[in-house]
## 1
Amino acid sequence: MAVTGGILFVFVVAHLLGNLKVFQGPEHFNAYAEGLRTVGAPFFGRGWVLWMVRSVLLASLFAHIWAAVGVTRASWRARPVAYRRLDLVETTYAARTMRWGGVIIFVYVVYHLLDLTFGRVNPSFVPGDVYHNLVASFQRWPVSVAYIVAMVVVGLHCYHGLWSALQTLGLHRPPTVAWRRGVAGGIAAAITAGYVAIPLAVLGGVVR
Amino acid sequence: MRLTLHVWRQAGPRAAGRFVRYDVPDASPDMSFLELLDVLNQRLITRREEPIAFDHDCREGICGACGMVINGRPHGPRRATTTCQLHLRSFRDGAELWIEPWRARAFPVLKDLVVDRSAFDRVIQAGGFISVRTGSAPEANSVAVPKQDADLAMDAAACIGCGACVAACPNASAMLFVAAKVSHLGLLPQGQPERARRVVTMVAQMDAEGFGACTNHGECMAACPKDISIDFIARLNRDYLKAVASGKPQAARANGGDG
Amino acid sequence: MELRARLPAGPLAEKWERHRAEIKLVNPANKLKRHVIVVGSGLAGAAAAASLAELGYAVSCCCFQDSPRRAHSIAAQGGINAAKNYQNDGDSTFRLFYDTIKGGDFRSREANVYRLAEISARIIDQCTAQGVPFAREYGGQLANRSFGGVQVSRTFYARGQTGQQLLLGAYQSLARQIGMGTVKMYPRTEMLDLVVVDGRARGIVVRSLVDGAVTTHIGDAVVLATGGYSNVYYLSTNAKGCNVTAIWRAHKRGAAFANPCFTQIHPTCIPATGEHQAKLTLMSESLRNDGRIWVPKRKGDTRPPLEIPEDERDYYLERLYPSYGNLAPRDIASRRAKQVCDEGRGVGPGSHGVYLDLRDAIARLGHRVIADRYGNLFEMYERITAESPFERPMRIYPAPHYTMGGLWVDYNLMTTVDGLYAIGEANFSDHGANRLGASALMQGLADGYFILPYTIGDYLAQAKLPPLDASHPDVRRTEAEVSDRVERLLAVGGRRSVDAFHRELGRLMWDKCGMSRSAAGLREAIQRIRVLRDEFSSDVYVAGKGADLNQALEHAGRVADFFEFAELMCHDALHREESCGCHFREEHQTPEGEAKRDDERFGYVAAWEFRGVGEPAVLHKEPLEFETVHLAQRSYK
């Protein structure tokens, strides 16, 4: 979980950094999108690297889901008779919503790909004009709201996932105890804020 | 003080259980929780009913025998306190308390609030020791142990094996218990030769016992009557990854250990 | 019955080495064929079971707890003594030996005690190697503290949880053997009788505490490591499950019971709060290193402690024992506490308490040092009493804690039944009439790791032990008797609970055979025990059935044995017309209220032979000969 989660986390950060170029205007943003396809040229052909990265991501995603299903099933099996109520005191909302959060994120990613990568559910999809596609999609407020909700879930998922991965990989050293949750929370909040800024900017007319 | 108890009654391992309500109108705030059950049991006996079975022994918070989930909290609401040292002054007059056994597949209920925790013993048997034959030990002061290491090892060794960590974990995971033992022995110079093998065999046994997986909720630490930190879980994970990466445990197993 | 102590000849310091050299050894190939049954898994039992298995014997071990790790040794707080002389303060094997003999008020064997002192250092080596996290100094060396009435620092400790850590060490060694299949472990299994065939111990009858099944384990030797009998007093610091059953049933099968009246009352326990009290909690004696004990000078002074001015406080231990002061031995500290409470100067609910005040130490050393030393004890005290020792003095009162008496054993730790051994608190051997602090752990581990595993070989190498199976008439008869006893308890169907009977017996024993005893009181106690015992067998109500997890039934069997045993204990106390160690006879004291020992008439071990319930036991005397130490009146003035 921790290793695949880590790969996906790197993607989430990289994707955010790329997406924030939307604020630099259509030329920069579209150039970035095009750049993704020409990375490694002339050694690699057009889109080769992108597909390599995509396949790693896909593999990670499915491994992550597979592991999550395994962990979940083990946990459900481990307590066949439930408590009348278990009073949780230490855990966080983020930790408790990892499973359903994961499902929500997965559903959203499918929609997101259909919308902005394949264009199947985009109102006016223009292949190559990523900026236009994004603005067109986010101008419909329900899409933006769904996106914002999904990004909050991603933030929570990253928050618990991040410090949890450090724990699982045994990277916590005793002195980090005091600030590890804070750092994980800060990074997660920054990610969410960055992503959420985009639909808000579209709706607010800053990006059009 | 008046208390209303709903106690899980279950006649045997395969019997169906249910909550039974008991009223105790005259409890004293100075009673321990187990003394409350003693008093209730005395009344059940005079009414010719079967007393409530619950594990207990030392009643001073060290043997680890007692433990029940009180209103959803293993060992009740007080931090770092076993059930036997929980006093009724921790509850308000008129409180309604739901009392359940530890619930985990690896801890089957034997009767009422008594569960079978032998899974913990088997985890220790799998590797939770230092192999030293009686009489073969060197002079105790021949190996200096830094005070910080000894103190940290003692923090981990304080585990009483009560199982509250498993009971509290939303996944019924035993990571804190295993981590405490792995860390206690792994922190000391005497524990080094078997360090890699120990963590691998103990984790394998833990999995075989049917405990759930750790997803880092931290509930175990909150329920632990000895305040054992989940930092030890990180330590276990680190040891485990290192051990697996080094390939040492596999080699040890191939040789059949030291017999 | 003949008491043959088998003490080796030769100078004191050479006896054990010489004996070890002369002991018969079991051929390694035959060890696997020898099956040793160990009952109990505390320090002595777990250490013995693990060590015997390491030697190659086939070992079975049973305990009534759900795991061997929960035996009551786990509750020992203070520490373990060893003559390491790490502090360079003049400690030596001889000094530890002498302190132990003197502390026991010259009622133990020189040879046994010297051996204990000799072995003590190796115990620390052994436990350290097992990973016991003893307290350390900053240089990484082992730390020591001074403890319980001695003037050198020889006590090793692991915070306030020394017993726990030592037990976990022994438990881990045992677990290793269980994992390798050399020890077969039976938790939640209670020994209910001893199988004796042709005068030799050949097995035990046990009842499974999970399903009630009564079965027999057959072996070549039986080791009882079943602890002490303080729970005869009902309220004690022992765990609720501690009982006399195993050693009592062995006594009924021919094992002599030695010095049953030597019971130790620990001075620093938390006083009872009411009728619901189920047990008493001990506060480590180490608190007396920094605490001062006092009561108000005036009778019936109910002012809160902080309002009692300095000159109206009576620091009675410091006043009576200027050189030892608050560190006076346990028996003295306990008896004096009872005395001031009897005078009406006790404090707290029911006036059964004295103050243990750390105010001066806090002022001298600072809050942090004290919190570092006693933090966990303070927390425990506050949890139980809801009072903080930083803000007001603790209240303490004596409570039954340890029993020096037990099955009589020879130098090899064998009882008067061939092939039956008793180790740890279950035997009588090393503490005489009073045990020093931090010596119980030492003795349990010495017996378990370093003595029994050698000495048992002497018997197994020589005894003719024909094969035996469960169909042997003696085995069947013993098993039938056990089932019968269980059925009888269930069949009474009376009106009173087991607990009610136990409480009543306990109160009687505490009043008449507790901290101070008199002939009249003891005679009265014996009469009342008999009456109560009859009532118990006709009016007890045990709920539930036999073939089930039935805690009331377990308790009933144990209380039934306490009823039989209590009478012997009173007889022993009555016959011992002297005051020594923890045994204080009101008729035998100096004008200042100190114990008056009578070495002429009572310089012996009293070993009692069973002749039937209610029948007077037969007294056998093992004279104690002191070749090395000079018998002195204990003085802690």
## 2
Amino acid sequence: MKKNWKEVEIALITKGGTAEEFKTGDWRSEKPLYKSDKCKQCLQCWLFCPDSSIIVKDGKMLGIDYDHCKGCGICSKVCPFDAIDMVKEEK
Amino acid sequence: MTKIVAKTGNEAMAEAMRQINPDVVAAYPITPATEIVQIFSSFVSNGEVDTLFVPTESEHSAISACVGAAAAGARVMTGTSSQGLALMHEVLFIAGGLRLPIVICEVNRALSSPINIHCDHSDTMASRDAGWIQIFSEDPQEAYDQTILAMKLSEQLFVPSMVTTDGFIISHAMQRVEIFDDNEVQEYLGEPKRPYNLLDVDNPITVGPLALQDYFMEIKVQQANFIKESRSKIKEILNDFNKKMKRDYSVVEKYMMDDAEFCFVALGSTAGTLRYTVDRLRKEGEKVGLLKVRFYRPFFEEDIVESLKNIKGCAIFDRSDMFAGTGGHLFNDVKSALYNSSSRPFLKDYVYGLGGRDIDVEDIESVYRDIKEFTENNGKGETVKYITVRE
């Protein structure tokens, strides 16, 4: 629900980190597919992802955050082990 | 306890700044406002204030540093004039939009071209739509008082303020000024109040985010509404200032208006000359008064309309031109304020004093004769007249 002019924060000063609330996943035309069997946990994908969409826990790559991944394909390109494929996004 | 001293407008403003003791002053020098921050910088070097003084490479940088410091929760001031205020222009809107309590000591000076260092109001008028409170001063006393008042207003309302004096006429003319005790000023202002604080690391915030079609209008309506509503709050704060600091200021000041048939309306230092001329004309039996507009922004429309309700003919004194073929700024604002009023005086604009051109009692007396004649002729003829100009 969008705020009206009385409810909106003064001068639109908002709390930090609100970009997380904005889902950009539906911008995708291509989708990265993670193949865990090929992954050597080098974390190059995590390092290069411009949208913080590589899910890492305890130093391990677990998969992709499809709510925010825009499908740019950088992770697939930088992966030295061919562990991420780009496929057409289908509804 | 007040102390009586002799001070120029610039010295009076610098003294007010010393007593306010802002956290940050970022400034760049410009005639005729240089002295304000120059004197203040010696207070900094002498350890008389706790201020971080940031000498910047331009006015654009000065006001930008002020915006950053104010967003970080600091009490912030600067001083400028003319081209300096013009160079600040884009950032003035940002400060207004971000609702940051910054105070500018602004000395009215003509804008180029031709280059000129003397007084008119074109610089301040050019920034009238930036979302700032604009207060005009008649003399060094008002410049001093209103600088302190502006800090209070800005911190209570979250709207930046500029307090103006007239270049050289006030800025460099020495007059008697009553100065408060340092602790009175500190007590009056209290702790700085902020709408938000960028440096509150426990509650991180985003200042100045992007707002497009879906939010921009809500933010601007919020700002517009706040400015509209601020008028009653300004009156409250002004009354409180009068009570605590023993002054007698009002948003628009009426002089000999009760039985007046004709009146002058003006901003700034010329109000003094007009008051003197009113006295002279009154001695000759003329029913004339003066309306001095102290707050130009926000515009106290209702107070002005109410003050003019029994007036037959009204001479507006404008020290600036809008270059729209319709006269000066004050004339246009007063004229539109009167549009919905049932009792409208005949209104004529007298543009005077551009680039510091002097105006004297005889000039004003001839304006008086002219507005009388204009009124007797039911407002026929030109409504804008440039006076004290060679023809």
